[in-house]
Amino acid sequence: MADIVLDVQGLTKRYGTFVAVDNLNLRIERGEIFGLLGPNGAGKTTTILMLLGLTEPSSGSVRVLGYDPTRQPLSVKARVGYLPDAVGFYDELTARENLAYIARLNGLSRKEGNSRIEEAITRMGLSNVIDRPVRTFSRGMRQRLGVADLLIKRPQLIIMDEPTLGLDPEAARQFLQLIVQLRDEGITLMLSSHLLHQVQAVCNRVGLFSKGKMQLVGAVPELAQQVLGGGYRIHVQAQSAEATGNGARNGTALLGALRQIAGVQDVERAGEDRYVVIGKGDLRAEAAAAVVNAGGRLYGLDVEAPSLDEIYSRYFQEVDHGANA
Amino acid sequence: MAQTLDQTIGATPQASPEAGVERTKREGSPWTGLWAVVAKDMADHLTSVRMLILMLLIVLTAVGTVWGALQEIRSAAPDDPFLFLRLFTTARDPLPAFVGFLSFLVPLIAIGLSFDAVNGEFNRRTLSRVLAQPIYRDALLFGKFLAGLFTLALVLTAIWLLIIGMGIFGLGVPPSGEEVARALVFLVATIFYGGIWLALGMVFSTVFRQPATAALASIAVWIVFTFFWGIIAGLTTQALSPAQFETAQQVIAATDLERNLARISPNTLYVEATIGMLNPAVRSFGLLLPSQMAGAIMGAPLPLEESVLLIWPQLTCLIAATILLFALAYLLFQRQEIRA
Fold first, then answer.
1. CA distances from B302 to A121, B276, B310 (A)
2. Which fold has domain A4-218?
3. Would the ipTM clear 0.95, i.e. be above it?
4. Residue B215 domain boundaries
5. Chain A to chain B, count of Cβ pairs less than 8 Å apart?
6. Is cis: bond before B107, omega within 30 of 0?
7. What is the pTM of this model?
8. Is A82–B132 a contact, with Cβ atoms under 8 angstroms apart?
């Protein structure tokens, strides 16, 4: 039980007749990176605000690190770091002054606050701009300052709302690395995003959130199994032994051989001597054996794990399809 | 955040966790982090260009009017035991007296300090970050109000000391104890008069997302009370009273009505409070009936306690209005969704 960092049961938020979050159930364990995915307006931010006690739930129960955010918001907020989307700072103040305010709001002594600020700023690589006003900071620097701001209170759980939105690819990559580092230090993270490939790169588990409901929860391969029934793509580059002039027919033979493999859902020709096998798992070894047994020459073999993009779009296609039918 | 209010007045604890949202007393003091907010916002105010401009304006006004008053006092050389108080109230053409200036400069400063208190945090997107720290909203709003009030008090006290200093140099005599006491009550009244406008600015800064709209709304209220309220009170009285006065009672009643209507304006309250305090000879703000003057010596000053008693209603009204307006801002802020 001690390892459950976040426990949400039947969480619902209504604004008048509009249901922003509908009967949400969720558990996050210590040391996880959980990705909350969904289109804009799906209720991600509302959920996060309820977890922090910044908005009151209409019904349902929430336990964050064992505390109830509506009754014990101070305990929750002292232990949970929140990085809002497009985090704002007091532009006319320096980075140090901005963080000093946060340290004081957290009830830290001046000495303790200063040492933590120094540590957090150095960690985020902002030491050389610590005494510059924040208005001179780039988007990436602001985002790093936002993380430094979280580290001041030494949180056990960090919630980030669209953390990589608006960052250039390199800054986003560094930021994702940072997220993994934080996880390795024992901090549990929850991030909301709609940038799926980034989420897939770092998250242990994801939840697909749409229209106020958590539609699917699980690790990416699990979801792939569930939605795509596998979704692994094996790229095979192979040539038949007697491939001279009549490649097309020989190709058909290889195609047939690949189709025979157990667990294959589909095989496509992606070009001359190139095939794509879609299967339930990593079927590279089986594909290689099939090519060799059919007398073919294997030149290349590669596997592509199912992408979250695919799961996401397939899932919502199916949902829409189901709704329209 | 209706729940916050329930909790503040101590809703009964419920044991059952199944009851959806549990309505129990919330943890900790609502004022956790209050002084951090006060310190930060005061530092912001005192270093802002906006404040610098307002400070310059009021210092120039103080120096100008008091210098004018000194000339006037010297040339008239009146034999007055309350010479110092005249520094505040004496006008010399073309300048009005210092208190006259204050009655419309103080609202401007107070509005300037508060019109972007809440919506400024919204627009800088700092509100959610600050409220994600272990503090309640109560501390944030009250901290901002106190920071404004302390800044105002600091500025006004500095001006007050400046005037007293100029008086000692210009008149060559130190103020008497009673003069200092009267001037201090005047200072307190001025600070709370500013408090009303500060709280009004906060109400508008909570209601409107755009600081410019909030500033404009505050200024509009200020213009109505400063320039038009007297006219409005007069017209309303005419509408409500008989067209022709037949008895003395009717005349008195109509005058009372007009005066009470005028007192809805904080400016009227403030002006009455300052006159009562700084001019010891004033013994009533309304019509003075012959019966009230029986046995009185014309122009004889009231003792300090009597003057305080005279302006007591005005003083309490100023303080009460400040508290009420702040309470309104507080209610609005507690109910507001913080997502941008």
1. 64, 10, 10
2. Rossmann fold (3.40.50)
3. no
4. 32-283+298-335
5. 102
6. no
7. 0.86
8. yes
